[in-house]
Design brief:
- This protein has 345 residues and is an alpha+beta fold.
- The protein is 22% helix and 32% strand.
- The protein has helices at 120-135, 163-172, 205-211, 273-282, 288-294, 297-310, 325-337, and strands spanning 13-17, 20-24, 46-52, 65-74, 77-85, 90-94, 98-102, 106-111, 140-141, 143-148, 151-156, 176-179, 183-188, 191-194, 200-203, 229-232, 246-256, 267-270, 313-318.
- The protein has seven helices and 19 strands.
- The strands form three sheets. Strands 9, 10, 11, 12, 13, 14, 17, 18 and 19 form a nine-stranded mixed sheet that branches.
- The longest helix has 16 residues, at 120-135.
- The protein folds into two domains: 4-135, no CATH class; 140-337, 3-Layer(aba) Sandwich (Rossmann fold), CATH 3.40.50.
């Protein structure tokens, strides 16, 4: 780790993700989309990131407003996640040894416990950047997205409903990955675009066995003590990545069927606009209670209300089991063909 005050003297890389130029010397574990041209960073905003053993400055804790707290009960006692808001910055403290100081053009991580360094990237390319983006007016969904004929199809839900599975299956059908796990959305002159993320997919062991060309290859874990791993997109069968933002063709809310495995029904049904807004709030990366306390909820609701007027939202009910995925992807592709702006051929 390095002292962020000596940033100019260090060799740094520039990474493109979520519509940003992320400038950092931090040795990221996961796959980052490295930008070769470091001379001209326009038009994307520039955001600097450092990670140090000491905080970048002394926070004025007595002037901070506690926005969010979450308690973990462990055998060694209670641990807390906390988010504090100050006049010109915020500090998101994570129970597992890392504090993130968030400012307009700078994010600094104070790693309190080096045993948890592997979690720095997990927090940054997740809750921290989702917070920064939402603050800038770009709501982020808990979603995976793929691109088909220059448009994006997104799958948004809580964990366990197959977002990454569906995205990986769509790659096998000829799509390209736009992002996995987090999807920031931008309004570009009245059209809604999904921002490109990292060229990797987070996979559980059974997913890896099904989607990877070489199951013997070792990849880094997303979180220590869990078997889920970061797989580079090129390791997936027919894996491809789209590094550019794409207009949203449709947002699907997937749910695996709880019917007997012999049932193979696939249902894709429209969601009415008012209900769709509620669902998009539900599946946003930053919880609604945080947005309410920060005064962001009105913007988010207006943003989603306008979005669902243009971008269809569908429920996707599908049978569990990898053997059904070819039929599921075919159903999604057929549904996309019916949209006014065809995303599939």
């Amino acid at each position: 780790m390095h002292n962020g005050n000596n940033r100019a003297s260090l060799v740094q890389a520039v990474y493109q993700l979520f519509g940003l130029n992320l400038v950092s010397e931090y040795p990221f574990i996961g796959r980052m989309n490295n930008k070769a041209n470091t001379i001209n960073l326009a038009p994307s905003p520039v955001l600097h990131f450092t990670c140090n053993q000491n905080p970048p400055f002394t926070a004025e804790w007595e002037n901070g407003k506690l926005i969010y707290s979450y308690r973990y009960r462990t055998s060694d006692g209670d641990l807390w996640d906390r988010l504090y808001l100050f006049d010109t910055y915020a500090v998101w403290q994570f129970a597992w040894g890392a504090d993130f100081y968030i400012r307009d053009e700078q994010i600094d991580c104070h790693l309190r416990n080096q045993n948890y360094q592997s979690l720095v990237e997990h927090f940054l390319v997740g809750a921290v950047l989702a917070y920064w983006l939402e603050r800038e007016g770009f709501p982020a969904l808990h979603a995976s997205a793929v691109t088909i004929n220059n448009q994006a199809a997104a799958f948004t839900s809580h964990s366990g409903n197959g977002k990454s599975t569906l995205a990986a299956a769509m790659l096998q059908a000829g799509a390209a990955l736009l992002t996995d796990d987090i999807l920031p959305i931008e309004n570009q002159k009245g059209e809604y675009w999904g921002r490109s993320g990292l060229p990797q997919v987070n996979l559980w062991p059974d997913q890896a066995a099904y989607f990877l060309d070489n199951t013997n290859e070792e990849f880094e874990k997303v979180v220590p003590d869990m078997p889920k791993k970061r797989a580079p997109v090129e390791a997936l069968k027919n894996g491809a990545f789209c590094p550019e933002d794409r207009s949203l063709a449709c947002i699907y809310i997937p749910r695996k069927s709880d019917q007997p495995s012999s049932r193979t029904d696939i249902e894709i049904v429209p969601v009415l606009p008012a209900e769709a807004v509620i669902e998009l709030v539900r599946y946003s990366f930053i919880p609604a209670n945080i947005c309410e306390k920060l005064g962001w909820q009105a913007h988010r609701l207006d943003f989603f209300a306008r979005l669902v007027e243009q971008v269809p939202v569908r429920r996707l009910l599908y049978p569990a089991g990898f053997e059904h995925l070819p039929q599921v992807t075919e159903a999604v592709l057929e549904d996309l063909k019916k949209l006014p702006h065809q995303a599939a051929t």
